């Protein structure tokens, strides 16, 4: 027998037989953690980008992303039956200063669905005002939504932990930033969107019962091994530090700058989260600042690992009421100081095509960074071309990237010696899997965005396909793997999104 509720759900269910199976465990934490509310509708939505691969991974039918009902639901114009939309509350340190309460000011958690990859939360970013919007309008613009959609998939393609994006939908509704732009919504997914700032919120407000509830929720779902430790909350801090250390190594190795590493933009799962003014390095400049609002360079490329540690320290402070002992909290942070550099070295060795570690490798990696910095060499192109350098072959394509040929020759001699006993095939294989041909350079995103503003979304599709498989050759698409044009350096990306 069909109940009234079932019948009404069936009537609302999006096309195809896809019926999402909602779990909504975050909602189970209780009202201290969020405000339940509905998204604010946007007029006449249209598809901007679809990630069919992710939809399939999540067990959604191909038809689901084709349906007009899904388009409405993922723009916030109708509720997916079984979801329980809410905005969560968190706080955080922004640019080194305690900012107090923040929260999901424009993101709505629809809930959590059961998938073949385990439970996944679904969030709509840009779905309207919430009680945490402060002065904001609750919206996201097309430009930044395309950037987040593409970059989160680029990171995933690179094998770097990240939240992901199922689609972007747009509307011609006007949104005021430095100029008038149009609105868009990114549908994001992750096992959890919990941030360091969620813990800071309850700790700073002396809500220690809620702090414990949150920590237990995270441990039970994502860090079950910590439960076995003598001090589970110190173990949690250590485990988060470890994941964050690996994340930083991955960012530094691929030349990714996040741009706004505030504690509210740090994932408790060690995922790259909240894509704003991010940038992949073009020329290698260790002090590069990608965020034009970051006047002090707090989040410059070469400061990211230290900033992550600073943020972990804040998380440690937030967890102190549960850990109870400052020494233990500090001890839990200690491994970061060795895990990060070791993980970075390991990644850089694979980029050099070295499968094992030998004495002198660290010096070789350091010398490589110094040479790239002195010559402002294109970071991605250098590594991809390096693959072709063998002790036997001429070094021309790589050498051409350096104006200081002498210092390159010295380095190449050192490198050739190191690889002289390395199997060529093995090395080539390792390098091809670790030195991407395609990264989301600012100018590539910009070109796709310009076309999208004119309702041509083919550039978004093309980039998505390239970035999801960035180590592949993709014949016919070399122009996406070339040097940035001159105008790329004039692109200004700020916090405005
Ligand atoms: P962010 O640095 O972009 O991660 O955002 C910091 C805080 O500002 C978070 O609480 C966001 O939810 C909020 N926020 C950013 N942009 C908006 C907006 N347009 N409307 C409402 N809240 C926003
Ligand atoms: Mg944020």
Describe what is shown at a glance.
Helices cover 41% and strands 13% of the residues. The chain has 17 helices and 12 strands. It folds into 3 domains: 6-193, no CATH class; 197-346, no CATH class; 354-432, no CATH class.
Characterise this structure.
The chain has 497 residues and is an alpha+beta fold. It folds into three domains: 6-193, no CATH class; 197-346, no CATH class; 354-432, no CATH class. The protein contains 17 helices and twelve strands. The chain has helices at 4-12, 52-57, 68-74, 142-157, 196-204, 208-222, 232-254, 304-323, 326-333, 336-352, 361-375, 379-386, 396-399, 405-419, 424-434, 442-453, 458-468; strands at 34-36, 46-50, 86-88, 91-94, 97-101, 107-113, 120-125, 140-141, 164-176, 180-190, 256-257, 279-280. The strands form four sheets. Strands 2, 6, 7, 8, 9 and 10 form a six-stranded antiparallel β-sheet that branches. Residues 1-16 have low confidence and may be disordered. The structure holds adenosine monophosphate and magnesium ion (MG).
């Amino acid at each position: 027998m069909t109940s009234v509720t079932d019948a009404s759900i069936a009537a609302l269910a999006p096309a195809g037989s896809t019926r999402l199976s909602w779990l909504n465990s975050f909602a189970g934490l209780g009202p201290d953690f969020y405000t339940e509310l509905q998204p604010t509708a946007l007029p006449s939505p249209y598809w901007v980008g679809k990630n069919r691969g992710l939809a399939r991974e999540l067990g959604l039918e191909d038809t689901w992303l084709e349906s007009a009902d899904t388009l409405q639901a993922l723009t916030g114009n109708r509720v997916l039956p079984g979801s329980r939309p809410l905005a969560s509350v968190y706080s955080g340190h922004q640019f080194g200063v305690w900012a107090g309460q923040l929260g999901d000011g424009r993101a709505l958690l629809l809930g959590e669905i059961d998938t073949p990859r385990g439970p996944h939360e679904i969030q709509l970013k840009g779905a309207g005002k919430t009680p945490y919007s402060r002065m904001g309008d609750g919206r996201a613009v097309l430009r930044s939504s395309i950037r987040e959609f593409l970059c989160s998939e680029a990171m995933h393609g690179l094998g770097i932990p990240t939240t992901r994006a199922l689609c972007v939908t747009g509307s011609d509704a006007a949104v005021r930033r430095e100029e008038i732009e149009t609105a868009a919504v990114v549908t994001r997914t992750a096992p959890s969107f919990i941030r360091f700032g969620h813990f800071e919120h309850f700790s700073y407000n002396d809500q220690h019962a809620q702090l414990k509830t949150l920590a237990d929720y995270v441990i039970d779902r994502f860090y079950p091994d910590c439960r076995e430790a003598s001090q589970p909350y110190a173990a949690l801090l250590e485990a988060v530090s470890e994941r964050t250390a690996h994340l930083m190594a991955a960012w530094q190795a691929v030349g990714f700058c996040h741009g706004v590493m505030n504690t509210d933009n740090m994932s408790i799962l060690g995922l790259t989260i909240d894509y704003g003014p991010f940038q992949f390095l073009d020329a290698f400049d260790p002090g590069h600042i990608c965020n034009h609002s970051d006047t002090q360079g707090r989040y410059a490329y070469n400061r990211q690992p230290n900033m992550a540690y600073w943020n972990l320290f804040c998380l440690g402070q937030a967890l102190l009421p549960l850990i109870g002992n400052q020494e233990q909290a500090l001890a839990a942070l200690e491994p970061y100081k060795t895990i990060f550099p070791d993980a970075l070295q390991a990644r850089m060795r694979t980029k050099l095509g070295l499968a094992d570690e030998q004495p002198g490798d660290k010096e070789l990696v350091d010398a490589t960074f110094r040479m790239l910095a002195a010559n402002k060499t294109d970071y991605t192109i250098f590594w991809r071309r390096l693959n072709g350098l063998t002790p036997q072959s001429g070094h021309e394509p790589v050498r051409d990237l350096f104006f200081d040929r002498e210092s390159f020759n010295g380095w190449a001699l050192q490198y050739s010696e190191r690889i002289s006993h390395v199997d060529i095939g093995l090395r080539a294989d390792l390098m091809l899997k670790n030195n991407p041909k395609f990264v989301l350079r600012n100018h590539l995103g910009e070109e796709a965005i310009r076309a999208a503003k004119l309702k041509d979304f083919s550039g978004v599709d093309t980039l998505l396909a390239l970035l999801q498989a960035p180590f592949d050759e993709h014949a016919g698409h070399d122009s996406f793997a070339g040097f940035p044009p001159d105008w790329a350096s004039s692109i200004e990306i700020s916090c405005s999104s």
